[in-house]
Amino acid sequence: MSDRQFLVPKGTEMMRERYHFSQGVQVGNTIYVSGQGGWNADFSIADTAAAQARQAFRNMATVLKEAAASLDDVVELTSYHLDMDQMGAVVEAMREAFPKHQPAWTAVGVTRLALPQMLVEIKATAVVRKP
To answer: Which end of the chain, C or N, has fewer beta carbons within 10 A?
Structure first.
């Protein structure tokens, strides 16, 4: 069995303690990033789906950095939306976050997310390239 590294970037320890999960887990070359929302360092959440998606990708980059990886290593995304009409905002954020490639993507409409202010949540799988 591959070694596992549980990823808890500085500043997210409260989420691990309160909700009992890691922001990501690395198993071998694969990194599983937990659903990221549009919260910033003080855990306030942006007002729009576009701003939340951009912040979710910044949060994802922070988790990946803990495993010496980056958004360039992301191969798959799943996004969860309260309003599927706002998917275009996520597409634009994806274009900014992934200018060099297009990860596989599944978008799912939901009736509720973890926090009432959340409009979108995005999880990812990344594969680190071997040197």
So the answer is: C
SS3 3: coil
**Running DSSP on this structure, what letter comes out for residue 128?**
P
Q: Please name which of 40, 50, 55, 25 lies closest in space to residue 124, comparing C-alpha atoms.
A: 25
Residue 54: Cβ within 10 Å count: 20
Task: Return the pLDDT at 21.
Answer: 82
Contact between 93 and 116 under an 8 Å Cβ cutoff? The reply is: no
Asked whether the predicted pLDDT for residue 98 surpasses 70, the reply is yes
Q: What is the pLDDT of residues 61-90, one digit of tens each?
A: 999 999 999 999 999 999 999 999 999 999
